[in-house]
Specification:
With 660 residues, the chain is of the alpha/beta class. It contains 24 helices and 20 strands. The chain is globular. Residues 647-657 have low confidence and may be disordered. Bound molecules: S-adenosylmethionine.
Length: 660
């Protein structure tokens, strides 16, 4: 079996069969098509990953599972004729051609249609015809069709397609007025004028553009409707403009936040000074004017503990020490903007009674090694015998402490035993002694249990990392949410919390491309639990500089951010007649602006790695902004954070997380 055959088989098992696909004719068809032939050479290594991929003309080859799902929904028989609207790469047409007798496929982009036609011919597909044209009008010359599949999302079901179905025929099409509302529908023609419709679930597709689709790529206006005021102008009228972070008046924002108990502050990169500084400004006002008392950030628990001790006046400045925050990417927390902020927190706390001091916590789980160390050192002090047993149990993970992802790989391939039981029993033993241990010092006990919880979740994270990527992403965000819950339970269920994380964690995942991959995030979980009590604020920028590495573990570089893509939200905001603004979305100044900002568009996410050369593939995803956030803060031009002068300490284990 060659490399791609192997990957194809794994794709079918993990992405399709594991999700419940049982239709053998579809499984056989997918097994018979070489997906790597349908994408550009530089992306072939991703041919079998669980996601759509970019093709020419700013379009995508659909996620393999979606192709399988739609093909199965067509219920094709071998003697049938099928019409596809949206040829794209030609991959789905090739899959259809392995089941049906004849395939007719239409593509509006000349370059895609011509490439697909040539490719299909070279690969020996004889029963596929490719037409350049507007598929919303169907292909009357060859109608009626037994099945029709549309691989782009339109505002309505085009009438021509309904008319071109045979009686007994099936039409599968994504329909919706926005990304959030796009549904995959199956329509059966049961009589001359009788159709039955079924909802097959939420999906996310590029727009269907044509006479009976959207008017253009922005999927704002169904074709044929009269022109309205442009979106840039609406955003201008619906936002509060400001000149600088130091001089901004945040009173209106605080009013909009109202009685919310959780405020989530995002960032569109991990290396932009304005994002940190604005979050610090908002956080300070929330602490001073609205009694917020917890700051929880996308950092590891043990590192954040050093900051917590520092702002309580019980430890030296951790950002000037070399140990905490010494794991790549050091600049994410050890930078001047954060340093100034934690000094402010310390000063604020120094004049407050203990009960109203602010606490600082880390929600992330990339500190397997230091968390194990912290649990053991705690136990050694309170219960040396239990410490001995825990040391033995953690010994299972120790050989991989420097590279936990190797542990994950070894357990998947059954070359090493799983340490799940060892870490869970250690946590359970600790929790069992809650009364005894916390009697001596409740704060230290809480810290130790959080570290033990982190070890248990991190073990599962690395073990499932190679199984399905979305699985480990979800575990990480679930861990962050659980940690937040644990902090609230420990401190005060009614305490008010500010959370600092990347937009991709705090913006509701259900309003982005992530949800189609089965991914959730802390923003979604917080909204599901706290509803309107949580206020989610996203951040964005068009151009400037950013601190980021070129590859995982690489040195920090100051990189130029490319001006935003023409199909992105960022591009719209860049064209607004002002540079910096706050854009309320939950309580918009103009309702129409919010509605228009719900249409699916690209959104940029720069993590600790930034690769401007492949920006469109690696840093943009589709989202529905007004569903994702309650408010959005825009800085047209931004600058890179300035790291504090300290290096990566070599003996601290490096981990391999997501770059966001
Ligand atoms: N089935 C494709 C594959 O396997 O690669 C993926 C299709 S892509 C998600 C959707 C395609 O629909 C794009 O190539 C887009 O240009 C095309 N499209 C959008 N509106 C169209 C229309 N009215 N007629 C034909 N093609 C259209």
């Amino acid at each position: 079996m060659n490399r791609f055959e192997n990957l194809r088989k794994q794709m079918i098992d993990h992405q399709m069969v594991a999700r419940g696909l049982r239709d053998q004719s579809v499984i056989n068809a997918i097994s018979a098509v070489q997906r790597e032939e349908f994408i550009s050479k530089d992306l072939v290594e991703f041919a079998y990953t669980d996601s759509p991929l970019p093709i020419a003309a700013n379009q995508t080859i659909s996620q393999p599972y979606i192709v399988a799902l739609m093909t199965a929904a067509l219920e094709l028989k071998p003697d049938e004729r099928v019409l596809e609207v949206g040829t794209g790469s030609g991959y789905a047409a090739a899959v259809l051609s392995k089941i049906a007798k004849e395939v007719y496929t239409i593509e509006r982009h000349k370059i895609l249609a011509n490439t697909a036609r040539r490719r299909l011919e070279e690969l020996g597909y004889k029963n596929i015809q490719v037409l350049i044209g507007d598929g919303t009008l169907g292909w009357p010359e060859y109608a009626p069709f037994d099945a029709i599949v549309v691989t782009a999302g339109g505002p309505n079901v085009p009438e021509a397609l309904k008319q071109q179905m045979a009686i007994g025929g099936r039409l599968v099409i994504p329909v919706g007025s926005a990304l959030h509302a796009q549904k995959l529908i199956r329509i059966r023609r049961v009589g001359k004028n009788e159709y039955k419709e079924e909802d097959l679930g939420s999906v996310r597709f590029v727009p269907l553009i044509g006479a009976a689709g959207w008017e253009d790529e922005r999927a704002i206006k169904p074709a044929g409707k009269k022109t309205e005021e442009n979106l840039q102008e609406l955003v201008y009228k619906s936002s509060e403009h400001f000149a600088s972070i130091n001089h901004i008046n945040l009173n209106n924002l605080l009013k909009r936040i109202g009685d919310c108990r959780l405020v989530l502050l995002g960032e569109a990169s991990h290396g932009t000074a304005e994002f940190y500084e604005m979050r610090a400004r908002i956080t300070q006002e929330l602490i001073e004017k609205k009694d917020f008392s917890i700051v929880a950030v996308e950092a590891d628990w043990p590192d954040a503990t050093y900051i917590n001790h520092y702002i309580h006046g019980t430890a030296p400045d951790p950002l000037l020490e070399s140990k905490p925050f010494s794991r790549f990417p050091t600049w994410m927390w050890a930078n001047h903007s954060v340093h100034e902020f934690i000094r402010w927190l310390k000063k604020h706390n120094s004049v407050r009674p203990q009960s109203t001091k602010v606490n600082f916590y880390g929600l992330d789980l990339y500190s397997l090694y230091s968390s194990m160390e912290m649990v053991l050192s705690y136990l050694e002090k309170v219960d040396p015998e239990t410490a001995e047993v825990a040391r033995l149990r953690y010994g299972c993970l120790m050989p991989w402490a420097n590279n936990p992802e190797i542990y994950g790989q070894l357990t998947v391939t059954k070359q090493y035993r799983e340490c799940e039981k060892d870490v869970l029993v250690t946590l359970r033993d600790l929790l069992k002694k809650r009364l005894e241990y916390s009697f001596a010092d409740g704060e230290k006990f809480f810290n130790a249990t959080q570290n033990a919880r982190l070890v248990a979740n991190a073990e599962r994270y690395y073990r499932t990392m190679y199984y399905a990527e979305n699985n480990s992403w979800n575990q990480r965000d679930q861990h962050m949410f659980e940690t937040l819950q644990a902090v609230l339970e420990h401190k005060d269920q009614e305490a008010k919390v500010i959370i600092w994380e990347h937009n991709s964690h705090i913006g509701d995942a259900r309003a982005t491309q992530m949800s189609a991959r089965g991914e959730l995030n802390i923003g979604q979980l917080v909204r599901q639990k706290y509803g309107d009590n949580a206020y989610l604020i996203g951040f964005g920028t068009d151009h400037g500089t950013v601190a980021a590495a070129s590859e995982w573990g690489g040195p920090m570089e100051v990189k130029q951010i490319r001006p935003s893509n023409i199909d992105s939200y960022e591009h719209i905001f860049h064209e607004v007649r002002t540079d910096n603004f706050l854009l309320p979305l939950r309580k918009p100044l103009l309702e129409i602006t919010r509605n228009k900002l719900s249409a699916e568009r690209l959104e940029r996410a720069i993590g600790v790695i930034y690769q401007p050369e492949t920006e469109l593939q690696s840093h943009y995803f589709y989202a529905s902004l007004s569903h994702q956030f309650d408010e959005y803060i825009w800085f047209d031009e931004t600058r890179a954070v300035e790291p504090l002068a300290r290096g990566v300490t070599k003996d601290v284990p490096d981990t391999y997380p997501f770059g966001l």
